[in-house]
């Protein structure tokens, strides 16, 4: 399994002017490599998952990549750390 981690600077929030943090995304390649018929799956986790959770990174993404001959891209979308109780985000969203 080949997996790589990247981050990018997102577009500015032009509506509400909230500061944006870099977006993390993870790319998992099929074990057989990329060929002409290799597809692409974009996975945006929900329901409390993160793209770099053990299940997503080490089980789901490799399974999808190998079973379906696809490159799997999973990402932690805008504000995901604001609403999850994660180590990185500092807890649940609070106003004020």
Secondary-structure blueprint of this entry?
Elements lengths: L1 E7 L14 E7 L9 E5 L10 H14 L2 E7 L3 H4 L13
Parallel strand pairs: 3-4
Antiparallel strand pairs: 1-2, 2-4
Task: Describe the overall structure.
With 96 residues, the protein is α+β, with helices and mostly antiparallel strands. It has one domain. 19% of the residues lie in helices and 27% in strands. A 4-stranded mixed sheet has the order 1-2-4-3, covered by helices on one side. Helix 1 links the parallel strand 3 and strand 4. The C terminus is likely disordered.
Helix content class? 10-25%
Distance between the termini: 44 Å
Q: Strand sequence of the main sheet, in spatial order?
A: 1-2-4-3
Strand content: 25-35%
Overall body shape: elongated
Mean pLDDT: 83
Low-pLDDT windows of residues: 89-96
Helix-strand makeup class: alpha+beta
Order of helical and strand elements: EEEHEH
Number of strands: 4
C-alpha Rg (nearest Å): 15 Å
Q: What is the number of domains?
A: 1
Alpha plus pi helix count:
2
Note the main sheet: 4 strands, mixed
Q: What would the keywords be for this entry?
A:
96 residues; alpha+beta; four-stranded mixed sheet; 2 helices; 27% strand
Quick gist of this model?
With 96 residues, this protein is an alpha+beta fold. The protein has helices at 54-67, 80-83, and strands at residues 2-8, 23-29, 39-43, 70-76.
């Amino acid at each position: 399994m080949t997996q790589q981690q990247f981050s990018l600077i997102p577009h500015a929030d032009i509506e509400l002017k909230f500061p944006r943090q870099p977006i993390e995304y993870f790319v998992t390649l099929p074990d057989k490599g990329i060929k002409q018929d290799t597809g692409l799956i974009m996975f945006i986790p929900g329901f409390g998952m993160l793209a770099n959770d053990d299940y997503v990174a080490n089980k789901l993404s490799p399974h999808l990549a190998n079973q379906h001959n696809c490159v799997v891209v999973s990402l932690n979308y805008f504000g995901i750390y604001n609403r999850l109780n994660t180590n990185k985000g500092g807890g649940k969203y609070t106003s004020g």
